[in-house]
Structure formats: C-alpha cells, structure tokens
Amino acid sequence: MLYALEARLTILRQPPSPASDPNALALSALGWVLGEPDRAERLLALTGLTPDALRAGLQDQAVLRAVIEFLCAHEPDLVAAASALGVEPADLAATKERLAE
User: Fold this and answer.
1) Among candidate residues 34, 21, 23, 19, the one with its CA nearest the CA of residue 61
2) Other CB atoms within 10 Å distance of the CB of residue 5
3) Percent of the chain's residues with pLDDT above 90
4) Any idea what the Cα angle at residue 74 is, between residues 42 and 81, rounded to 5°?
5) Could you give the CA distance from residue 6 to residue 36 in angstroms, rounded to a whole number?
6) With contact defined as beta carbons under 8 Å apart, do 19 and 68 qualify?
7) Cα separation of 72 and 94, whole Å?
8) Pick from 29, 34, 101, 15: which is nearest to 72 by CA?
9) CA–CA separation, 66 vs 64, rounded Å?
10) How far apart are CA 80 and CA 71, in angstroms?
C-alpha cells in the first residue's frame, strides 16, 4: 500500500524566480514605480524620459537600466520595490548590470 501511495506523489517545483529574467524584473519594477503617481512623476523628472519615450522604450535596455538606477538612487524605493516584487534589494539592484548593454 505504501508503494502505491508513493507512486502518486508529485514533485512540486518552485516557480522561476522573478530575478532570473532581468528584463522581466526591470519591467515589473517599472510597473511598481508607475503604480504611484508621485513616484512616476519623479521617475520622469529625474530620468528625462517622457511618457511617450517610456512607452516606446519598454524593450530598450537603456530605458530599463534607467528605471533600476532610479530605484537605486533612493534606497527606500529600492527596498519597497524589492519587497513588492518578492526579491532581495541587492538582486533588484544587480539587475542593472545583468541587462544587456
């Protein structure tokens, strides 16, 4: 009977970490930034991006690096974003280097 029970067990696997794909993590971070109007306005002001440039640059590595740099420049935002995204702040910050140049 024990053998029959073991034959039906399924190995549960953890879903891939959001930190494993730097583009996806940077886009998630951008979504977090844009979720708060004041923070979104600060992103645009400090990066020099316009809403149109931001939309057009969603696949642009330089734009995604600018989002991560924005978060790294203000530790409370970096920590809050990392917490919301389920990653360590250091992993979120390291995303900048992991994005293709």
Assistant:
1) 23
2) 8
3) 74
4) 85
5) 49
6) no
7) 10
8) 29
9) 5
10) 9
Sequence spans of domains, the chain: 19-98
Where are the alpha helices (H) located in 1-101, listed in sequence order? Answer: 2-7, 22-34, 37-47, 51-56, 61-72, 75-85, 89-98
CA atoms of 11 and 54, how far apart (whole Å): 41
Whole-angstrom CA distances from 6 to 3, 13, 14, 72, 85 are: 5, 17, 20, 48, 36
Helix 89-98 / helix 22-34 crossing angle, nearest 10 deg: 120
Amino acid at 74: H
pLDDT digit string (tens) for 21-62?
899 999 999 999 999 999 999 999 999 999 999 999 999 999
CA–CA dist 21, 41 (Å, integer): 26
